[in-house]
């Protein structure tokens, strides 16, 4: 890192910043190796640094100092009357864009001088043609025909796929029916396997990275959202012959973090969700991380399933859900037609 700073003429950069930012209140973002190397080898007294911030700092750090500067937790950025945010990170361009949405009209500039080669590469990859040629790699979509033939990267009516990263694999088996819209959105290293004879009206899947979604055969959905966007290496597994009603939500994560105040250990990690075969999920049901619904079960309207159940042939209902009836099964036919 020392050589990196020297190659970018950091001494000259520091002299430039001291003049440009004279009397400006400065917040430094990033306290990793670069910042530690800077404070070890350079005198920053020429800058009016009012605090340091990083995503690792929490509310409990308020009033504490590190490297001789007050710590400003991630959640308290807006409470600091800073004029400028200095980015003390090596690859700052994407961070600079995202922080502009957080700091709004604040001036956000790199601590180290701009690397014009990196700048050109970054913005060139935003050009649609270049992004297509050199962007995400190894994303494979496979349509498995009824005769076993595999069609790669097919165009499927009402199916929208957007994987922004790399190494995603999506396999969809015919026949199927999408009457309105199915969206599969994610980043990298995800795997989606969808069985045959399924019917979808609306389905939206949000995945982060390194997650797996498996949907069996003969399953119908009216309106369902599956959220796996925060927390890697998680699984949502849905069996065969399931029926999902309106406004169903399945989540492997709480999205935001809950931690122990003393140990800072995460106490709400992401967990898998398993749904067995021949499960009927009624309207407005929420299925949360760690849930397991056995085969031949019914989940009642507006229930919240937040734990593992092991007993088949039951009705689960309530918030949180519990077993309300045993020794049942269900059929897709209406009551009048069943008799």
Structural class: alpha/beta
Largest sheet: 12 strands, mixed
The share of residues in helices is: 10-25%
- Provide the CATH top-level class of the largest domain: Mainly Beta
CATH topology annotation of the largest domain = UDP N-Acetylglucosamine Acyltransferase, domain 1
Would you count the extended β strands for me? 26
Query: Poorly predicted ranges (pLDDT <50, ≥5 residues)?
Result: none
Shape: elongated
Rounded average pLDDT: 90
Distance between the termini: 77 Å
CATH superfamily of the largest domain: Hexapeptide repeat proteins
Portion in strands: 25-35%
Domain count: 2
Ordered list of secondary-structure elements with their pairings:
Layout: H1 2-7, H2 10-20, E1 26-29, H3 33-41, E2 49-53, E3 65-66, E4 69-70, E5 84-87, H4 93-103, E6 107-110, H5 116-124, H6 128-134, E7 140-144, E8 150-152, E9 159-163, E10 169-173, E11 176-186, E12 191-194, E13 198-207, E14 212-215, E15 220-228, E16 235-238, E17 243-244, E18 248-251, E19 273-275, E20 280-281, E21 286-287, E22 292-293, E23 298-299, E24 304-305, E25 314-317, E26 322-326, H7 335-338
Parallel strand pairs: 1-2, 1-5, 5-6, 7-10, 9-11, 10-12, 11-13, 12-14, 13-15, 14-16, 15-17, 15-18, 16-19, 17-20, 18-21, 19-22, 20-23, 21-24, 23-25
Antiparallel strand pairs: 3-4, 7-8, 25-26
């Amino acid at each position: 890192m020392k050589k990196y700073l020297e190659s970018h003429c950091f001494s000259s950069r520091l002299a430039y910043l001291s003049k440009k930012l004279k009397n400006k209140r400065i917040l430094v973002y990033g306290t990793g190796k670069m910042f530690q190397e800077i404070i070890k080898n350079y005198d920053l007294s020429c800058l009016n640094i009012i605090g340091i911030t990083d995503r690792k700092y929490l509310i409990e750090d308020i009033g504490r100092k590190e490297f001789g500067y007050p710590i400003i937790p991630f959640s308290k950025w807006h409470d600091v009357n800073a004029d400028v945010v200095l980015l003390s990170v090596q690859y700052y361009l994407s961070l600079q864009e995202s922080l502009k949405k957080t700091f709004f009209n604040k001036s956000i500039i790199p601590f180290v001088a701009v690397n014009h080669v990196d700048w050109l590469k970054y913005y060139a990859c935003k050009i649609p043609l270049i992004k297509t040629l050199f962007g995400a790699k190894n994303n494979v979509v496979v349509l498995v025909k009824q005769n076993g033939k595999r069609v790669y990267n097919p165009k499927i009516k009402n199916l929208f796929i957007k994987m922004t990263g790399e190494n995603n694999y999506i396999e969809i088996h015919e026949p199927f029916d999408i009457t309105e819209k199915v969206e599969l959105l994610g980043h990298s290293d995800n795997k989606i396997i969808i069985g045959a004879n399924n019917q979808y009206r609306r389905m939206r899947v949000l995945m982060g990275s390194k997650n797996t979604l498996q949907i069996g055969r003969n399953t119908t959905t009216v309106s369902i959202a599956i959220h796996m966007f925060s927390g890697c290496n998680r699984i949502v597994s849905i069996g065969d012959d399931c029926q999902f009603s309106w406004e169903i939500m399945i989540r492997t994560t709480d999205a935001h973090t809950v931690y122990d105040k003393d140990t800072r250990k995460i106490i709400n990690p992401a967990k898998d969700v398993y749904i067995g075969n021949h499960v009927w999920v009624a309207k407005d049901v929420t299925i949360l991380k760690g849930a397991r619904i056995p085969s031949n079960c019914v989940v009642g309207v507006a229930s919240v399933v937040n734990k593992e159940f092991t007993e088949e042939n039951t009705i689960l209902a309530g918030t949180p859900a519990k077993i309300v009836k045993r020794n049942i099964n269900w059929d897709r036919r209406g009551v009048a037609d069943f008799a």
